[in-house]
Amino acid sequence: MALDRWIALILLGICLIYGYTAWFTMDESLAPFMRRNPIWPSTFPKVLSIFGIIACFVILSGLEKGEQKIGDIDHRRLTDYFLGQAILLLALMVVYALCLRPLGFLASTSLFLILGSFILGERKFHIMIPVALIATVAVWYLVQEVLGIFLRPLPYFLGA
């Protein structure tokens, strides 16, 4: 079996477990007044698990396969691609997730965007830094002020 089908099979198992959790275990702990709501906290995970299962079945059945075109990824030649950049970006995502609480949203997100664009090859710091800062502050403002979800903006040791 090809590499993409093995990955789809593993993802199918993950989506089935995720779907089982969303359909059966998340709804049991709802408060009685929330059970009458049209949208529950488990609605998005349910939809996401269904789409994941459908996508996995499409890959497992080979419906997405066609002729291999120039530019398609050939799993037999993985060493020809930029694996170093991909691994560095994955490591940066893990470090970002670990730094959100101690450094705060503004610092960790700005550093993530700046370092991520640097890893991908951007070298125009006079453009990269202001864009990262503006995007970070805009997302923080929308989430904090418009949606009303608290995001710790400053580092933990500053008491914010």
Automatic annotation (TrEMBL):
Keyword Membrane on entry: yes
Origin: domain of life: Bacteria
Sequence ranges assigned to domain DUF1468 in this UniProt record: 6-151
One Pfam short name: TctB
InterPro entries reported in the protein's UniProt record: DUF1468
Transmembrane segments: 7-26, 38-60, 81-98, 104-120, 127-151
Record key words, sorted: Membrane, Transmembrane, Transmembrane helix
Name of protein: Tripartite tricarboxylate transporter TctB family protein
Organism (species): Pseudooctadecabacter jejudonensis
